[in-house]
Design a protein that fits this description.
Elements lengths: L8 H8 L6 E3 L22 E8 L2 E8 L10 H17 L3 E5 L9 H18 L5 E5 L2 E3 L1 H7 L3 E5 L4 E3 L19 H6 L5 E3 L2 H14 L31 H8 L6 E2 L8 E8 L2 E8 L2 E3 L5 E4 L3 E2 L1 H16 L4 E7 L1 E2 L3 H20 L4 E10 H6 L9 E4 L4 E3 L3 H8 L5 H16 L1 H6 L5 E2 L5 H11 L16
Parallel strand pairs: 3-4, 4-5, 5-7, 6-8, 7-9, 12-16, 15-17, 16-18, 18-19, 18-20, 19-21
Antiparallel strand pairs: 1-2, 2-3, 10-11, 11-12, 13-14
Length: 478
């Protein structure tokens, strides 16, 4: 057992899976290399336990690295056990869960270890978009193993003892661990490298169990559907007061107020996560301008603009949803892009990623415009112009090129303040009102805030059998 670990590799598996459901595969596999006195070292399971079992009755394949066996280092046979597990999971069309606690590549096996790591990467790429891949870090996950974790769809870290790094903090120019621990859970959560950080190992394992229960097992399932006890016609009277902190709005419209947030500490102005609507798992993306505590006090505040990190966060999430037939709901409130020099270096490309993800997705897509929807930033947020199936807007929503006052100032430059104000009011009515967009067919209906839940449920029900044919291609080049 690792000095930092609370559970052994087997105990982690036992805590993750349904009781007595684990079946080990490759239990007697061990190293072949005898260089550097390896023949004298006993390495149980070659440092990794592999097998399959159930989570809430759903089949999953699991590998758990054992840091007590030569540090859980990845050698030739260690890697072959993992790639063999991927082969079985792909045949069974079941998720793969990796529990990482490793000192890294096994130096005594050098090129064999590198070959094994590359073969793991190749299997992960092959499995991408076919079966969900989840990684949890409980000890060290450094160097090439950090790439392995990042190739997963979702990654988790235990808060205190886990370390995720491509290069150690002390090797970074001008940095040392005491100055900035770039391997710690907090740094990786805020940089978007991991999706969830748990206070302890059991919390992480339980969160993985919850995720498995809401995801389809593979890309051939038609999404994930469960029984719902919530009223389909339930009104949401607080929705209009939740338009700034849209996480609360998503919780309010979801069945029994369920929400599973993804990357909560990264790009907080963009909310991503899973909700349930009439028992169906739905991926939700929402712009956010405030984070409110339980007393309604703002603890964080943001402009209603797209940022590079926010675009990347949403785009990655939408691509996952599309790969696994999970419908997508968006709550849109965006007036443009963050304007500063650093953002300008990256925002165009990131915004293109977001537009690409929404336009490329063929799953049911519903958009609710809850605030401002200006310019190309609005277009990229799942607008009808790039393929949303249904678009709703609240009566107070504004949809157009830009703020009415600014538009009037540009069009009537040099005019008096009285003229500017008059034309701004006219522009707001003729060009920026939700009604104006609805008359042009860009909005399907203007709905009251308290009715949002039932409208999006019925929209997704009508889209349940959606099929959209696209031109044949190997894959996009973006």
């Amino acid at each position: 057992m690792s000095n930092n670990a609370q559970l052994s590799a087997r105990e982690r598996i036992a805590s993750l899976l349904d009781e007595n459901s684990f079946v080990e595969v490759g239990a007697l596999v061990t190293k072949r290399s005898t260089d550097f006195n390896l023949e004298q070292k006993e390495i149980p399971n070659d440092g990794v336990i592999t097998g399959y079992g159930l989570i809430d009755g759903n089949p999953v394949y699991v590998f758990s690295q054992d840091s007590s066996a030569l540090g859980g280092s990845v050698g030739e046979m260690h890697a072959k056990k993992i790639t063999r597990l991927y082969d079985l999971a792909l045949k069974a069309k079941a998720p793969v869960i990796g529990l990482i606690d490793s000192s890294g590549l096994r130096l005594q096996e050098s090129s064999d270890a590198l070959n094994g790591l590359g073969e793991i990467y190749a299997k992960q790429v092959m499995a991408s978009g076919v079966i969900p891949q989840i990684t949890a870090v409980f000890g060290n996950c450094g160097g090439g193993l950090a790439v392995m974790a990042s190739l997963s769809d979702f990654s988790f870290m235990e808060e205190k003892s886990s370390r995720l790094f491509l290069q150690t903090p002390n090797s970074l120019l001008g940095n040392h661990k005491q100055k900035l621990d770039t391997s710690g859970a907090d740094f990786n959560a805020k940089s978007g490298n991991v999706d969830y950080v748990g206070a302890n190992e059991l919390e992480v394992l339980n969160k993985i169990r919850e995720l498995i229960s809401i995801l389809p097992s593979n890309n051939e399932e038609g999404g994930r559907v469960s029984e719902s006890s919530d009223n389909l016609n339930r009104l949401v009277p607080n929705f209009s007061s939740e338009l700034e902190d849209t996480k609360s709005a998503l919780i309010d419209i979801s069945d029994n107020y369920y929400f599973y947030e993804i990357k909560a500490d990264y790009a907080k102005e963009m909310v991503t996560g899973f909700i349930r609507l009439n028992g169906v798992t739905v991926g939700a993306v929402a712009n956010r301008t405030k984070i409110l505590d339980e007393n309604g006090k703002a603890t964080d505040q943001f402009d209603n603009v797209l940022t590079t990190d926010g675009c990347k966060k949403a785009a990655s999430f939408v691509r996952f949803c599309d790969a696994f037939n999970i419908p997508v709901l968006t709550l849109t409130n965006v007036s443009g892009y963050k304007a500063d020099v650093n953002e300008e270096k990256t925002i165009a490309k990131a915004s293109a990623e977001l537009a690409y993800a929404f336009a490329d997705a063929t799953v049911p897509k519903v958009n609710v415009v809850i605030g401002k929807a200006y310019g190309s930033a609005y277009v990229n947020m799942n607008s009808k112009h790039i393929g949303a199936d249904y678009v709703f807007a609240l009566p107070t929503a504004e949809i157009g090129m830009m703020d009415a006052k600014l538009a009037a100032q540009i069009m009537y430059d040099g005019s008096s303040a009285e003229v500017i104000n008059e034309k701004a009011e006219e522009y707001a009515t003729l060009q920026n009102a939700a009604l104006s967009a609805a008359k042009r067919g860009y909005v399907d209906n203007i709905i009251e805030p308290e009715t949002v839940r039932k409208h999006v449920i019925y929209a997704f029900e009508m889209l349940y059998s959606k099929y959209e044919e696209r031109p044949f291609k190997k894959h996009g080049s973006f």
